[in-house]
Specification:
two-stranded antiparallel sheet; globular; TPR-like_helical_dom_sf; Starch-binding associating with outer membrane; SusD-like_N; SusD_RagB_dom
Length: 588
């Protein structure tokens, strides 16, 4: 049965432990004018939930299909279309404008009205709820502005680095909707301001306290029972101080990146310190989850998840559900799947050898005639290569062009186009056979700790070099060493390539970017990363054709991106409606 934590926790908020809260009656239709009946917290809390329900989820978007990491055999895939030259200001599957501004409107209503609501009959608990709801609204507003900047910030015809219009008040029917874009820097300052306010108002986590001594001073003199009613474990899954700090890390990394940093000398150090704070709260470098590579398929861990609780690798996630949709879309045809996402040879080549050396390095031991032997263990975890196994019975999959099944290269519409199938994110214990089909539990992370570790490594290397420790006492080298050690890379030889890179900032930069590519593949990062690094989007997607056991590299799909597409467009309809909006350079 599908579980919806947001709805469940909303119900707990309204009912658990306090009889004085009433659910709105069925016919209680109200304008969003701030005049809420006494003891009716359900309506305003529902306004806040509109913000939660609009949070974009990177995972499962598979915008990798618009990069050098993947193609799709689905000719209607929207990211395939933009990669093939159909990306326009009026055809933009990456558009966040409508969704984000709708969420911001709801959050602005909540911020306007939160202090007028009687959240409970107990005035102390009501004050705590006001703090919490206000903190959540500020934090969510910052998150939506981050997504707007990621998707729509850019350089104008005049060369200015622009963000988006800053809407900080409720927009009523008579509001001036024709607002210009604020500078990127002004938008970032607003994001930081909202996050700082959220951090001041929220607990680090929602957990019950057994003793009032553990209640943070900022919440005043309250009893254990009062604190737990507002900030207890029943509300796990909602925005917390820990999540706010992670969002700050994500936003700061974007702002420090080449596409948006116009001379802020401290931007990289700021980004490193924000990520470092999150890592330190986690427990430091040694707290990197040992099973974090397989967070999506750790069956016992996932089955034992309490509502709102997180596995060790996950900082924030959505609700979980029992289904087989992802496997239906991506298992190979012989396992009754549609084989939709096909990893590229480009990505396969990014995986080093198990000894840590890139495949094109002298002495790596790479054998082009037997290319999957001796490789980084993550390769077979994440990508189904020819001869790899998949499905509940660990069936060997033949992707060769002369293979006997529909798994073969370009055999049927659901066959691979690259010689590879997706393995990451999929539960191999799902059975799609119509005679014995089953579901398994899945969830989507909003933020993984590995992302924050990689944020730190990238920013720390740029700020202080490979071995500069910064104020938290660990370096980019330390982080990458921990990540590669977890993966089993360089485990038997001391990882000489990493040791070499720690003496060269440029080499370490390339290694960090490659580790990010591998660790976060198929989770919706590559497209954004290439653009914020101002790297080419036009690398041809390649595959492998294996005939008579002999592999040869093939071109699969060219990319039709223009240089200005480092920045996304302002929606064309918005440009037509509002003369004050300035389009990003190159878009029409």
């Amino acid at each position: 049965m599908k579980r919806n934590i947001i709805v469940l926790l909303a119900s707990v908020f309204l009912l658990a432990g306090c009889k004085d809260l009433l659910v709105p009656e069925i016919e209680n239709n109200q304008d969003l004018n701030g005049n809420y009946p006494a003891n009716n917290a359900g309506l305003p809390f529902g306004i806040l939930l509109n913000g939660y329900n609009r949070i974009p989820t990177n995972s499962w978007s598979f915008n990798d299909v618009a990069t050098d990491d993947a193609v799709s055999n689905d000719q209607n895939n929207s990211f395939l279309k933009i990669a093939n030259g159909q990306w326009t200001a009026s055809n933009n599957p990456l558009n966040q404008w409508t969704n984000a501004y709708a969420a911001i409107q709801y959050l602005n209503i909540m911020l306007r009205d939160v202090d007028t609501v009687q959240w409970t009959a107990d005035p102390v608990v009501s004050r705590l709820f006001r703090m919490r709801i206000k903190g959540e609204a500020y934090g969510l507003r910052a998150l939506f502005y981050y997504h707007l900047l990621q998707a729509h910030a850019g350089v104008s015809e005049s060369g200015a680095v622009l963000g988006v219009p800053l809407i900080l008040e409720v927009q009523g029917p008579t509001a001036d909707f024709n607002k210009p874009r604020a500078s990127f820097e002004a938008c970032m300052q607003q994001v930081y301001s909202d996050l700082n306010k959220a951090d001041e108002l929220l607990p680090l986590d929602y957990e019950n306290v057994a003793d009032p001594a553990f209640i943070p001073e900022k919440f005043g003199s309250v009893t254990r029972e009062q604190y737990n009613r507002a900030f207890g474990a029943a509300f796990r899954g909602f925005l917390t101080g820990r999540i706010v700090k992670a969002i700050r890390s994500k936003a700061a990394l974007l702002a420090a990146s080449p596409a948006f940093n116009t001379g802020n000398a401290t931007a990289w150090a700021d980004a490193a310190n924000y990520a470092g704070e999150v890592i330190s709260l986690k427990g430091g470098i040694n707290a990197l989850a040992s099973n974090g590579l397989t967070w999506y398929s750790n069956a016992a861990e996932i089955a034992g998840l309490a509502d709102g609780a997180n596995p060790n690798e996950i900082l924030w996630r959505n609700n979980y559900g029992d289904n087989r949709d992802l496997e239906q879309a991506n298992f190979p045809p012989s396992l009754f799947g549609n084989g939709r996402i096909n990893p590229t040879q480009n990505l396969v080549d990014a995986f080093p050898m198990a000894n840590g050396l890139p495949i094109n390095s002298a002495g790596s031991g790479y054998d082009a005639s037997n290319p999957y032997i001796g490789r980084d263990p993550r390769l077979r975890l994440f990508i189904l290569v020819n001869g790899g196994t998949a499905g509940p019975n660990n069936i060997a999959i033949n992707t060769a062009i002369d293979g006997p099944t529909n798994d073969a290269l370009n055999k049927v519409e659901t066959s691979t186009r690259t010689g590879y199938y997706l393995r990451k994110l999929l539960r191999q214990d799902v059975n799609l056979n119509p005679n014995s089909a089953n579901n398994q539990r899945h969830y989507k992370p909003h933020i993984r700790y590995t992302e924050i570790f990689l944020n730190y490594a990238e920013a720390a290397n740029e700020a202080w070099g490979p071995v500069g420790a910064g104020k938290y006492g660990y370096s980019a080298y330390d982080v990458i060493k921990a990540i590669r050690k977890r993966a089993g890379v360089g485990a038997t030889n001391g990882d000489p390539y990493l040791e070499e890179a720690k003496g060269n900032k440029d080499q370490m930069r390339e290694l960090i970017r490659n580790e990010r590519r591998i660790e976060l593949c198929f989770e919706g990062f590559r497209f954004w990363d290439l653009r914020r690094w101002k790297m080419t989007l036009s690398e041809t997607a390649k595959g492998v054709s294996i005939r008579n056991n002999t592999p040869s590299i093939i071109n699969v799909e060219s990319r039709q991106f223009q240089p200005f597409m480092v920045y996304g467009p302002i929606p064309y309809g918005e440009i037509l409606k509002f003369g004050a909006l300035e389009q990003n350079k190159g878009w029409r």
